[in-house]
Amino acid sequence: MTLIDDTASISVSRHCRRGAVTASLDNLNFLEPLHANHSVCVESFVSGAHHKSMEVFVKVIGENLTTGERYLAATCFTTFVAVSSDAEEFTVPRVVPETEEEKMVCAGYKKRRAHRLHERDDYKEFAAELSLELPWADEK
Ligand SMILES: CC(=O)SCCNC(=O)CCNC(=O)[C@H](O)C(C)(C)COP(=O)(O)OP(=O)(O)OC[C@H]1O[C@@H](n2cnc3c(N)ncnc32)[C@H](O)[C@@H]1OP(=O)(O)O
């Protein structure tokens, strides 16, 4: 997961050329186990951008170095939010997909974003109910 976050953050930095923080990670699907003696290639690209947020699609590809067989081990979407050290107003650049795969992935951005924001609101309500007390605070 560190590899996923690190790789995605490189795509984000190249896209907006400023600092950004990971806001969420979703649709992380582990599709095939990665074997210890296989190579791992993590690919990512920015698949959608709004004002300050950028969605990144990440593919984790395993390769059996003996047979050359390549397989999709995992995919996920992660969202980063660009930050500024001063009060400067900015909007991150829009995404212009080029390959067929980029066009296919980017086509679902608006729907995923709407779903994500809806879930974020639900999650805020859930989180507001969680206790911050020390677990042993009630012990007599
Ligand atoms: C290894 C690691 O990376 S560990 C994780 C490190 N990351 C962090 O510590 C981040 C901690 N969180 C934060 O700093 C804040 O919650 C932030 C910056 C993510 C969001 O700050 P907020 O003040 O809530 O943001 P705000 O409501 O103004 O929204 C700003 C943008 O972020 C987007 N956003 C905010 N939270 C989320 C979320 N959970 N998922 C997706 N997008 C989000 C909003 O949609 C908005 O997008 P837009 O500007 O493109 O329209």
Automatic annotation (TrEMBL):
Coiled coil: none annotated. The keyword Transmembrane helix does not apply. One of its GO terms (biological process) is fatty acid catabolic process. One of its GO terms (molecular function) is long-chain fatty acyl-CoA hydrolase activity. Transmembrane segments: none annotated. Keywords: Hydrolase. One of its GO terms (cellular component) is cytosol. PROSITE patterns: HOTDOG_ACOT (PS51770). Residues 1-86 form the HotDog ACOT-type domain. Belongs to the acyl coenzyme A hydrolase family. This is Acyl-CoA thioesterase. It comes from Enterococcus florum.
